[in-house]
Amino acid sequence: MSGRDADAVFVGSVPELYDTYMVPLIFAPYAADLASRLRPRPLSRLLEIAAGTGVATRAMAAALPESCAIVATDLNQAMLDHACAVGTPRAVEWRQADALRLPFQDATFDAVVCQFGAMFFPDKSRAFAEARRVLGKGGVFIFSVWDRIGENEFADVVTTALASVFPSDPPRFMARTPHGYHDREQIARDLAKGGFTRAPRIDTVAARSRAESPLAAAMAYCQGTPLRNEIETRDATRLGEATEVAAEAIARRFGRGRVDGKIQAHVVTVEADD
How far apart are CA 71 and CA 20, in angstroms? Predict the structure, then answer.
């Protein structure tokens, strides 16, 4: 399996560790932001793609009226299974689906949302075309992507630290994929290629990433994301060592108690034609 193919693999213990460590560390603030952007809109049917373990799904289920039906999808069944087990404040339809081939009829939804999934799409304009296809007239597509890795402090520190563990072949998952799709002009071009004729609104939103300890932050990145796949591909016996090296690097920069670092993302909103 190539590096980019492995980047989208969330299996084994990764979904649980992702939800335990990664979700509160970096995803929860943006889930609340996404729900707040949707709340003023009159929605009857909403589709979420790349829902992961359901952090944004839970926020939307709590914020939106029960009259708005929510369908949450993800390519990885293991992530959906965990999301379903955690549950939501009200009923949500969970469904396995590929964002590049959505199993829904045209013009089915008032809104399509995607929190930090677009970076993983192998053909982004095709995924955007699918989002456009299933949107009804006047619908909205809202998605978020991480800004460059230098604007996201823990991810940057962990990536640099792991290069010292594997100097001949440093794991670059975080820079390559989660933080590899941040160019605003490229995003706009991909949306246009996907059939959106209106210019997108792109808001750059900074937040704070907080963990109980440097080790908790290191666990999030090294064991709760596909970065784990990269580490274990190089040497599965060194996962613990790599996590400890990342934790020590975070501790040196941010302290040995509770840690707090900057995170930054782009939130993209584009309206479908009336």
Answer: 23
Mode of pairing for the β-strands spanning 93-96 and 69-74: parallel
AA identity, residue 38: L
Tokens of 204: 């750059």
- How does pLDDT run across 74-85, given as a tens digit for each residue? 999 988 998 999
Contact in structure between 173 and 253 (CB atoms under 8 Å):
no
Q: Tokens 């829904």 label which residue?
A: 104
Could you tell me if 151 and 65 are in contact, meaning their C-beta atoms sit under 8 angstroms apart? Answer: no
Nearest Cα to 113, choosing from 31, 171, 190, 170?
31
Q: What is the pLDDT of residues 9-53, one digit of tens each?
A: 444 556 788 788 888 899 999 999 999 999 999 999 999 999 999
Q: How far is CA 167 from CA 153, 164, 178, 221, 251, in A?
A: 21, 5, 21, 19, 21
Mean pLDDT of the chain: 93
Per-residue pLDDT tens over the stretch 157-216: 999 999 999 999 999 999 999 999 999 999 999 999 999 999 999 999 999 999 999 999
Q: In what helix (H) or strand (E) does residue 82 lie, and over which residues does it extend?
A: helix 77-86
Query: How does pLDDT run across 144-165, given as a tens digit for each residue?
Result: 999 999 999 999 999 999 999 9
Degrees to nearest 5, angle at CA 96 with 90 and 98: 130
What whole-number distance in Å separates Cα of residue 119 and Cα of residue 181? Answer: 6
Q: How far apart are CA 68 and CA 214, in angstroms?
A: 40
Q: Do residues 250 and 222 touch, judged by C-beta distance below 8 A?
A: no
How would DSSP label each residue in 30-81?
HHHHHHHHHTTS--SEEEESS-TTSHHHHHHHHHS-TTSEEEEEES-HHHHH
Contact 213, 259 (CB under 8 A): yes
